[in-house]
Design goal:
Structural class: alpha+beta
Number of strands: 17
Helix content: 40-55%
Strand content: 15-25%
Strand order of the largest sheet: 2-3-1-9-8-10
Largest sheet: 6 strands, antiparallel
Distance between the termini: 33 Å
Number of helices: 28
Radius of gyration: 24 Å
Length: 624
């Protein structure tokens, strides 16, 4: 796991070094550069040593040094690929990186189809004077790129691009509008104009100052025609193989263990494939309302892992809030980045690699929103007059609760899902500002420019793009390409890599993803039971209360904090002085949101947090 940066077209070695060194925490073990002044091309690399600690330095070259490559990630099938290449190529290292270089010599741009792993790759073909950028199938590893004039530059994070002298700071209003809705800026956009995230499962070629792109993988749904028993056996084998592959490491390795189904499943298969107790890690909190440590301890004891737990207080999370902008150079309003950071920091004290359970909820329709969707279909059958004049008035008048996810918060958020188009229901549930709220938030001149924009156009695009047998399976794909890729995976990447920790996600092995996607929807969500097939598989392997307990998530009590511990900080960040700096927002409406929340008239936690994160980002990254 590493950080990469570079450019073609304009720049100096000094520019390259400055870009790359912004990513030092992603790769604290060393740096390397390829720079050709005549071609004006530079590739930079910061290394976190995982495989072949002595010989895996990058950039990596082929035998005659006509291909140079920098790479962030891991290729889990590299040993298998290497066996086929060894009789035709001379290998100088034992790294997975060198396999990619030699495979490119044979397959060209089709090389990425052969790789099973998570990766962001930059390759320069010196003979053809061609730059190729590529990103893994599920978008596990980040890769930003920009074109300014006749130059193209790239990096694992935007902060690297910002060091190039041609970079221009200009906030993209379309992206800001989407951020306020989603809580993140959706791919391929970024918060800056002219800067994009490379799409997953795709590659970009820069040749003769022209760009072309290609796609090397697409998943599809609904092809399975086997029995449920056969599906259980296949799922068992694929999970076992996926975890086993991800245990390969030349440095200490452990497992994130929350005590939920997904992380406990990964810990089960890791322990099954280990001759010694695997190391598992969890964090505990003194505040019982958001502490899950008892379940983690139970799972660890049952699986006989070597378990490590560290106890924190709410103040440890609160102290991190001002540093949120450091963790991400693009606004991301997911407050669970705070405990994820603490878990990563603690885990890094013992190991360099961790396996996590990310992807299980998206693959198996595990979020409460999938159950709410069924309720929503029933709710829409109730006559509109009765719904609006009686039910909605009752729900909107419920007093604000103090719990992390209180009943009134869930019911009011449920109502937020019902707008002009039911197909955007899930995005409204998951996100923050609704369109009618943004019409009050934005200054009117800006809103006139944005009001006709479909902030959820990505949902339309993905549903048209995927081959799905049912509307529900198309929804799973939408989750994979939005919430999973642009919020969950970004959160984990930033929190872990800021602590120089590599996190692997066995649920996101593309073979496992393809298989689960091929299953009928009722194998994933049956009746009111989410993750049906996974729960059935693990019910004989884990304690029943672990398998069937209600999903809690890595939440923090934002609503209460904003009324108490974070109130002064919120007022400071969202003051007239701070808000007026950008000129985007109406201070009177923001004052209304604050007053409603502080007086407990309304629960505006998500809206206020979304704005606070944006202001933190502005203060840190958009200074003149």
């Amino acid at each position: 796991m590493c950080g990469i940066a570079g450019f073609v077209g304009r720049g100096t070695r000094e520019n390259l070094e400055k870009m790359t060194r912004t990513l030092k925490y992603r790769g604290p073990d060393g740096e390397g550069y390829f720079f050709d002044a005549a071609l004006v091309v530079g590739l930079g690399h910061r290394r976190l040593s995982i495989i072949d600690l002595g010989g895996g330095k990058q950039p990596m070259f082929n035998e005659d040094k006509t291909v140079a490559l920098v790479f962030n990630g891991e290729i889990y099938n590299f040993l298998e690929l290497r066996k086929d290449l060894e009789n035709r190529h001379k290998f100088l290292t034992g790294s997975d990186t060198e396999v990619i270089v030699h495979l490119y010599e044979e397959l060209g741009e089709q090389v990425f189809e052969k790789l099973n792993g998570m990766f962001a790759i930059a390759l320069y073909d010196i003979k053809k004077q061609k730059l190729i950028l590529a990103r893994d199938r599920l978008g596990k590893k980040p890769l930003y790129w920009a074109q300014f004039g006749n130059s193209i530059f790239f990096g694992s994070e935007i902060k690297a691009l910002m060091q190039h002298p041609d970079f221009k700071k200009e906030i993209d209003l379309q992206s800001l509008n989407k951020y306020l809705s989603y809580d993140y800026v959706p791919t391929p956009l970024s918060i800056w104009k002219n800067v994009q995230k490379l799409e997953p499962a795709s590659y970009l070629v820069w040749e003769k100052e022209k760009i072309r792109t290609g796609v090397f993988w697409k998943t599809s749904f609904g092809a399975w025609d086997g029995s449920e028993a056969q599906a259980l056996g296949h799922l068992d084998n694929l999970l076992n193989e996926s975890v086993k592959m991800r245990l390969i490491s030349d440095v200490p390795l452990g497992i994130f263990l929350s005590g939920g189904l997904d992380s406990s499943t990964i810990a089960y298969y890791a322990q099954k494939n280990s001759s010694v107790p695997v190391k598992t890690f969890s964090i505990a909190f003194e505040e019982k309302s958001f502490d899950e440590s008892a379940y983690a301890r139970q799972a660890a004891k049952f699986l006989r892992t070597e378990h490590f737990e560290k106890r924190f207080f709410a103040k440890d999370l609160l102290n991190l809030v001002p540093r949120i902008a450091e963790l991400s150079d693009e606004p991301l309003a997911d407050a669970s980045i705070l405990p994820t950071y603490l878990l990563s920091q603690f885990t890094r004290e013992k190991v360099t690699v961790a396996l996590g359970g990310d992807g299980g909820d998206e693959l198996f329709a595990g979020y409460p929103t999938f159950q709410a969707d069924k309720l929503g279909n029933l709710y829409e059958k109730i006559p509109a007059v009765f719904r609006k004049s009686i039910l909605e008035k009752i729900i909107r008048s419920l007093p604000v609760g103090h719990g992390n996810f209180s009943l009134d918060f869930k019911l009011k958020k449920f109502l937020d899902g019902f707008g002009d188009f039911s197909k955007y229901r899930h995005q409204r549930w998951l996100g923050s500002f609704l369109k009618e709220e943004k019409s009050k938030l934005f200054n009117q001149e800006i809103w006139q420019e944005l009001k006709n924009q479909n902030e959820f156009e990505e949902a339309d695009r993905y549903r048209l793009d995927v081959k799905a047998d049912t509307e529900q399976n198309a929804l799973i794909y939408e989750y994979m390409r939005t919430y999973l890729m642009d919020e969950v995976l970004v959160k984990v990447d930033r929190a872990s890599m800021f602590n120089s920790l590599e996190v692997r996600a066995p649920f996101l092995d593309y073979r496992l993803v393809d298989f689960v996607n091929s299953l009928p929807y009722n194998f994933k969500n049956r009746g009111w039971q989410t993750k049906y097939l996974l729960k059935r598989l693990m019910s004989s392997k884990l304690p029943k209360n672990i398998v069937f307990r209600r999903k809690k998530g890595f939440g923090v009590p934002l609503g209460e904090w904003l009324r108490k511990d974070l109130k002064d900080f919120c007022n400071q960040l969202l003051s007239e002085k701070e808000i007026s700096k950008s000129g985007f927002f109406s201070i009177s409406y923001i004052e209304q949101l604050k007053n409603e929340h502080f007086s407990e008239k309304k629960d505006n936690r998500k809206l206020l947090w979304n704005l606070m994160v944006f202001q933190l980002w502005q203060n840190n990254w958009n200074k003149n």
